[in-house]
Amino acid sequence: MKVELTGFEGLQVLTPAVYSDERGFFFESYNVERFEKEGLMHKWLQDNQSYSRKGVIRGLHFQKPPHAQAKLVRVLSGRILDVVVDLRSGQPTYGKVFAIELTAENKMQLLIPRGFAHGFSVLSETAEVMYKCDGLYNKSSELGIKYNDPILKIDWQISEAEVIVSEKDQQLPGFVGLETGF
């Protein structure tokens, strides 16, 4: 497994060793010993999976402390633009955006530490996304940031005409003045 630093403390891109032959391919998406050897000490408690069509934007979501979650995100089919915003007020990257294309083909995973808002846009006709969480879902601590916040200026790599966002996500507040607890 190759671990790439992103310039955001704790936010890392993981690329597994993939073994291919005439039958197809095999790789370990998670191995506790390999992760611990790299200093990635998470106890994963919940797996989430979504299926979405082109133009869908999910996010930007997070949970406030003490129910914050780290996530390990990967794509099972299709292509997404995975986006995070650093909400940790003491970090030099506070309020900055990191985006990366995750695909079923590149098999990269994004390890997102606690203290980030997370979302993604679907770039392919459909996409299936799976992610591990180190904390359980807690409705009362759930928050988010509106996907088209004018301060963050996120380029979701889809046209505004294609955007499909849930009513719940359309009602999310902007970044300025957001009390996150981080």
Distance between the termini: 30 Å
Query: How much strand?
Result: 35-45%
Structural class: mainly beta
How many strand units?
13
- CATH topology group: Jelly Rolls
Explain what this protein looks like in three dimensions.
This protein has helices spanning 32-37, 167-170, and strands at 2-5, 12-15, 19-21, 24-26, 46-53, 57-63, 71-77, 79-86, 97-103, 109-112, 116-122, 126-133, 142-144. It is mainly beta. It has one domain (2-170): Jelly Rolls. A 6-stranded antiparallel sheet has the order 1-2-10-7-12-5, with no helix packed on it. Strands 9-8-11-6-13 form a 5-stranded antiparallel sheet, with no helix packed on it. A hairpin with a 6-residue loop joins β1 and β2 (12-15). The model has no long low-confidence stretch (mean pLDDT 96).
